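Quick one, T. Sequence first:
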Amino acid sequence: MKGSYIILTFVLLVVGFLISYSYQLTNEKKQEHTISAEQWEKEFKARSQLIDEEEKNEALQKELYAKQEEARKIEESLKNQKQIYYNLVEDVEKYRMYVGDVPVVGQGVQVTLEDSSYIPEGENVNNYIVHESHIFNLINELYISGADAVSINGQRLSSDSYLYCNGPVVTVDGNQYPAPFVIAAIGDPNVLIPSLNIAGGVIDQLSFENIVVTVENKSEIKMEPLLQEQESAS
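Structure tokens:
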């Protein structure tokens, strides 16, 4: 009986030791997973700051997008204004060229109008010579077809030019010129020449009225400013 008590006592000691060890191990694990109030507060502040920074970044990103869109609109506006100014300058240059304020050089066409070399007997000679109406029609067709500048026998025309004929002589801005009349026009020959030669156009009309017409494609035509011409004449 005494041996049995000793064994039982030993078993109870082992069991007690195991229970005590298990309890201590459980407490240590709980302590490992338990966060102190101070640590929790630090973690909360860090998360709050992170959220604030993310919100600030999002707001700054939206502001950046807005500024970029504003800059794009300004660039587009400047581009449009630049194009408008360029068009205005181009128009001014065309007007100055048209009124004869600036010299002009370029390709174009040269049209020569001559009186008919043959006048049938008994016919009115006036029906076989060049008149101002013939020159008018030719000049109008050239301008309509896009000519930038026109001259008659070297006399450059302006918006105020005038011409009239007196027999075989045509007066251009006070200067008299006999036939043949050489009309030069600066412009695109690929446009000017077809417009003159169109069926029923000005060339056909001139030929029908017994005027001898010669059309030439010129790679370069030069015309001086009208102001210089007036100063040299004076």
